[in-house]
Amino acid sequence: MQGVWTPDQVRGAEQRLFARTPEPVVMRRAAYAVAGQCARALSDQTGGVAGRRVALLVGAGNNGGDALWAGAFLRRRGVGVTAVLLVPEKTHAAGLEGLRRAGGRAVPAEGANADTSGIGAEASDAVERADLVIDGIVGLSARGPLRPTAAELVRRVLVPIVAVDLPSGVDPMTGAVEGPAVTADLTVTFGGLKPCHVLGTGAVHSGEVTVAGIGITEELPAPEVSLLDAAEVGEEWPIPGPADDKYSTGVVGIAAGSATYPGAAVLATGAAVQATAGMVRYAGPAADDVRSRWPEVVATGSVGDAGRVQAWAVGPGIGLGASGREVLRFVLESGRPVCADADSITILSDDETTWDSRDPDAPLVLTPHAGEFARLAGEGPGMDRVAAAREVAARYDAFLLLKGNTTVIAAPDGRVLVNDARQAWPATAGSGDVLTGLIGALLATGIEPLRACGYAAHVHSLAAELAAHGATGDGPRSEAGAPIGASALLAAVPHAIRAVRDAALPS
Ligand SMILES: NC(=O)C1=CN([C@@H]2O[C@H](COP(=O)(O)OP(=O)(O)OC[C@H]3O[C@@H](n4cnc5c(N)ncnc54)[C@H](OP(=O)(O)O)[C@@H]3O)[C@@H](O)[C@H]2O)[C@@H](O)CC1
Ligand SMILES: Nc1ncnc2c1ncn2[C@@H]1O[C@H](COP(=O)(O)OP(=O)(O)O)[C@@H](O)[C@H]1O
Ligand SMILES: [K+]
């Protein structure tokens, strides 16, 4: 698992590091890493390093200091470096001195011969003639979007941008982008990933992210948030062993669908059928539809007749009426782990008494989208989706999977996993039903709920990606991709599982 640390955690680690290693040494290590990545980018893009031009956008703090020192290192490799100072009087003095000693120059952003936007002629020229721009406007201490002068300079950049620590204008803690912000091709960060690199829009603005150790990593506490990679999901994905049979690999019950919405039942059940080798039982009014699409499913008309299961997935398409409420009560009382989605979240939100049916010893997973989250929590998740998911998970003593481009999964004990879909192909009707079936099947195998949700979310978004790019058939993979429906996503689930399992093979 890859860790993600909050700005406060990183600052704490930085202070511990400074007790051993002087701050200027740490800053130069950071800057050296930035310079190395910039040299690589220049070389990839222009075929060389010496003789190329780099502009530094330098803000008022240490982030600007990093950029200035990186400029000094690049200058020593023959790069022409101009620093554009956004707040000249607050520029990092040692960094500026270092750049000048190395032969670089510095100009104020709002200097002489300013144009109508207030940008000085030299600053304008530096940005427009650069082969690469380094964003040292603001880092961990950022608040809010880019201020007007910085925003105007960034708007003029037509070449790749390397961001120092994080793309300026993105909120470090939440990844929120509420106005002008840098969109970096590459971000060089220090010690470990921060939330802005992996959450929502911030992840898009960060581009490729490289973590430079610089001595901080050893000082970091347990991460606030974790990310799963494909190999980890593949390694742990449950497959049958020689001693297994259809029961030992987990029997999941799916309580979904209705006469009006049989599709929800077919999608959730199909996902469970394909996720694991175990048995799938379906209970509900769509039994005929389910049987005809998935003959391997043992289907009955009601949850009471379903037989024994090791976990339940409940909710999609069950409706908000009396029968849906009865079904939900039945599975909550069963003592089995439950994944409650869609209508069951709405029922739990508007009828407090439903909670009384819950067996407090059985894990409960809730999988709301933003609207269902607002119903459940009384307000929407807001910008800090990690904090919101964590708070509601603790409040209900449940595992909370908050859907979206970045899916946030919080355990009641505060652990958080995130899955970044990287693209938005899963945003299609019925796609959540597929996710519910995947989670249910994984819970039935006995996988810990936080991980079950993480593995399911990972395979779900990968399946959407593979389907959208046509990577599941015999034809060539399309670079651009095309929209898909939930049926295509569902059909791609085995391809996604194979892909993560292949990623786990020793290389
Ligand atoms: N931690 C580590 O491991 C290491 C950290 N290092 C580096 O230090 C960086 C943190 O530096 P830092 O704390 O000096 O502040 P930084 O982010 O440069 O901001 C400076 C000032 O900018 C302002 N400002 C705020 N918002 C703004 C906006 N939207 N647009 C424009 N300006 C804005 C605000 O001042 P204000 O104008 O509000 O008074 C703020 O105080 C970190 O990201 C990394 O690069 C490495 O050197 C070594 C290892
Ligand atoms: N913009 C997006 N990018 C990536 N994934 C998304 C996006 N929007 C939604 N999703 C994913 O698609 C699924 C939608 O689930 P849900 O809203 O329950 O749909 P439905 O009820 O139609 O099945 C979730 O897994 C969610 O994380
Ligand atoms: K930055």
From TrEMBL:
Which keywords label this protein? ATP-binding, Isomerase, Kinase, Lyase, Metal-binding, Multifunctional enzyme, NAD, NADP, Nucleotide-binding, Potassium, Transferase
Cofactor(s) the protein requires to work: K(+); Mg(2+)
Q: What is its EC number?
A: 4.2.1.136, 5.1.99.6
Domain spans labelled YjeF N-terminal: 10-222
Protein residues bound to (6S)-NADPHX = 62-66, 139-145, 165, 264, 317, 369, 433
List the catalysed reactions. Answer: (6S)-NADPHX + ADP = AMP + phosphate + NADPH + H(+); (6S)-NADHX + ADP = AMP + phosphate + NADH + H(+); (6R)-NADPHX = (6S)-NADPHX; (6R)-NADHX = (6S)-NADHX
| Residues at which AMP binds | K403, G404, N405, T406, T407, G432
Q: Which family would the database say this protein is a member of? A: In the N-terminal section; belongs to the NnrE/AIBP family. Belongs to the NnrE/AIBP family.
Subunit comment: Homotetramer.
Q: What is the designated name of this protein?
A: Bifunctional NAD(P)H-hydrate repair enzyme
Give me the gene this protein comes from.
nnrE
